[in-house]
Amino acid sequence: MVFTQTSCFRDPEVIYDGPTVVEFNQAIVPNAPISFPVFNVNNGAGEVFTRVNLVGPQQITPQTILYRVDPVRTTAVEGLHYELLNKVGDNGSFAIPANRSFADCGFRVLQAPLVSGASVNITLELLGTTDGIIRPSENYKRLTYRILL
Fold first, then answer.
1. Nearest-CA neighbor of 93 among 60, 51, 63?
2. Are 26 and 39 spatial neighbours (Cβ–Cβ below 8 Å)?
3. Nearest to 100 by CA among 49, 50, 57
4. Where would you tag: which of 115, 125, 128, 132 has the fewest CB atoms within 10 A of its CB?
5. Is the pTM of this model over 0.70?
6. Greatest CA separation found in the chain?
7. Cα angle at 123 between 46 and 91, to 5 degrees?
8. H/E/C letters for each residue in the chain?
9. Tens of pLDDT along 2-57?
10. CA atoms within a 13 Å half-sphere pointing along the CA-CB vector of 149
11. Which pLDDT band holds residue 89 (cuts at 50, 70, 90)?
12. CATH number corresponding to 24-29+36-148
């Protein structure tokens, strides 16, 4: 009798050695029919957070990551439908702590006037660090929320 063992992975010791990037965890959707996902959120929901992954080596100091609202893909109005958290200029920001591989990025959904059956979109786009050491992943840098009014 002969027994063999197989593994699901060809080489489990493969280590990522590309550029250090950040990506929205929820944007990693296998075989998605769209380039980035859309999530529903209720009018007046308050603070909404999503996990952002650091892909690459952990950093020895906290890293401030900037994000913006994509003006082309967004129909929501800042101050009426949403507010960015921890603003730096026109952008929002959050910090990935030292020696960590993720952090939460968020915004606040305001209580806008109710319009039955209507919705507006807000698309967040990761920008990376101001020094460019950590860049956004081109494939997973956007995430859209549909605010149901």
1. 63
2. yes
3. 57
4. 132
5. yes
6. 73
7. 80
8. CCCCCCCCCCCCCCCCCCCCEEEEHHHCCCCCCCCCCEEEEECCCEEEEEEEEEECCCCCCCEEEEEEECCCCCCCCECCCEEECCCECCEEEEEECCCCCEEEEEEEECCCCCCCCCEEEEEEEEEECCCCCCEECCCCCEEEEEEEC
9. 555 555 656 666 677 889 999 999 887 665 555 668 899 999 999 999 999 999 99
10. 17
11. very high
12. 2.60.40.2030
- Only one residue has tokens 């101050």, namely 79
Query: Tokens at residue 112, please?
Result: 């806008």
Scanning the structure block, which residue is given the tokens 């807000």?
A: 122
pLDDT digits (tens, 9 = 90+) for 90-116: 999 999 999 999 999 999 999 999 888
Amino acid making up residue 104: D
CB 82 within 8 A of CB 107: yes
Token readout for 43 is: 């009018």
Residue type, 29: V
